[in-house]
Amino acid sequence: MWPTLSDGDEVTCNPLSYSHSKPEIGDVVLVRHPFHSNLLILKRISELQDDGTFSLAGDNPDPTSSDDSHNFGPVQKSAILGKITIN
Prior knowledge:
- The protein has one helix spanning 69-72; strands at residues 11-14, 28-32, 40-48, 54-57, 80-86.
- It is mainly beta.
- It starts with 10 loop residues before the first strand and ends with a strand.
- Strands 1-5-2-3-4 form a five-stranded antiparallel beta sheet, with no helix packed on it.
- The model has no long low-confidence stretch (mean pLDDT 93).
- The chain has one domain: Ribbon (Umud Fragment, subunit A).
């Protein structure tokens, strides 16, 4: 998520943030990686799909340096573990 986040930055994850609301474009979220279930990643919601899934993108301006929806496609809401607040 560089340049928004750097190594050592602290964030807070609210797992209840989407219990009564929908994720929105621009939200930074904690997501279970769709191909590596033991890997958690932080990504920004970049697009809401018609079928209720979400496209995710990293903030790095080099799209080849981020493992996001360009690589694994959109994710279900159930893959989103919570909304991130940058401390």
